[in-house]
């Protein structure tokens, strides 16, 4: 294991990478579940001494490969549980808590909604796009069910089978089946329709390395409507071994409004930005969003999760779980 530094944490991650990379399959089973749980628990604690961008080239390559393995494993896990949920003919969405990371999605979605509220200034988005929704579109489901109850969600994924499973999952819900649409397409081929969305969510694993991620962001900047919000997920510290990093400087053409770096069990950092106004001829400018932009000003804030915020989120999570039980 010559590519690993002497840092104990990095060496542990390298050891887990070696074991994960030798698995015959990344589909859910005891060995896969155990190794990825160990990986997540290793990367979870905040560590200010870990900056993956300053590590050696060999560790950077290992990290890139590990993120791809995590992405493939996450896809298998979501497909597995989406199939289990659809086997409940009566209200499969009432059993979402069977997914092992459902609590994390509840908390992350609540945080993302709070950030949206802070930056929309009373405006309720009519149309939301989620790019990279996958076979188990939990973020869209949670936001549509509990937070944005009047919004239309357009879910984009390049995998037709993932969309098929996801659409089947929400088909039995009389409300969500009308407000959640699924599109099988590469986001790089989506142009004019991107102007229709008030908010665009970009999944953490759309663009698994820096270059791919920046290409997607540049494409969104070119085609999103001025004033629309872009919500994307990043990672910080050791958690960057699990997901790609997006820095504020990567968001050319966007006004970065807020960066949220959780310190609890929510893994992803959240970056919210607003598409800057450009040539009016390039798209329809949302007047209400422009007013919100003026109210927001040029403020760039880095938030830490405070105990009060954490307790509010956990209280919300508990209430949702009671509704689902």
Keywords:
325 residues, single chain, 44% helix, 2 domains, globular, Rossmann fold, alpha/beta, 8 strands, 8-stranded mixed β-sheet
Describe the structure in brief.
Belongs to the nicotianamine synthase (NAS)-like family. The chain has 325 residues and is of the alpha/beta class.
Write the layout of secondary structure elements.
Elements: H1 8-21, H2 30-43, H3 57-86, H4 102-120, E1 127-131, H5 138-147, E2 152-157, H6 160-170, H7 176-179, E3 180-184, E4 199-202, H8 210-223, E5 229-234, E6 254-261, E7 269-275, H9 287-296, E8 301-304, H10 307-324
Parallel strand pairs: 1-2, 1-4, 2-3, 4-5, 6-8
Antiparallel strand pairs: 5-7, 6-7
Helix pairs in contact: 1-2, 1-3, 3-6, 4-5, 4-10
Task: Provide a descriptive summary of the structure in words.
The structure is a single chain. With 325 residues, the protein is of the alpha/beta class. The chain folds into two domains: 8-86, no CATH class; 103-323, Vaccinia Virus protein VP39 (Rossmann fold, 3-Layer(aba) Sandwich), CATH 3.40.50.150. It has ten helices and eight strands. It has helices at residues 8-21, 30-43, 57-86, 102-120, 138-147, 160-170, 176-179, 210-223, 287-296, 307-324, and strands at residues 127-131, 152-157, 180-184, 199-202, 229-234, 254-261, 269-275, 301-304. The protein has an eight-stranded mixed β-sheet. A hairpin with a 7-residue loop joins β6 (254-261) and β7. It is globular and about 50 Å long. The N and C termini lie far apart (47 Å). The model is unreliable at 279-317 (pLDDT under 50). Synthesizes nicotianamine, a polyamine which serves as a sensor for the physiological iron status within the plant, and/or might be involved in the transport of iron. One of its GO terms (molecular function) is nicotianamine synthase activity. Belongs to the nicotianamine synthase (NAS)-like family. It catalyses: 3 S-adenosyl-L-methionine = nicotianamine + 3 S-methyl-5'-thioadenosine + 3 H(+).
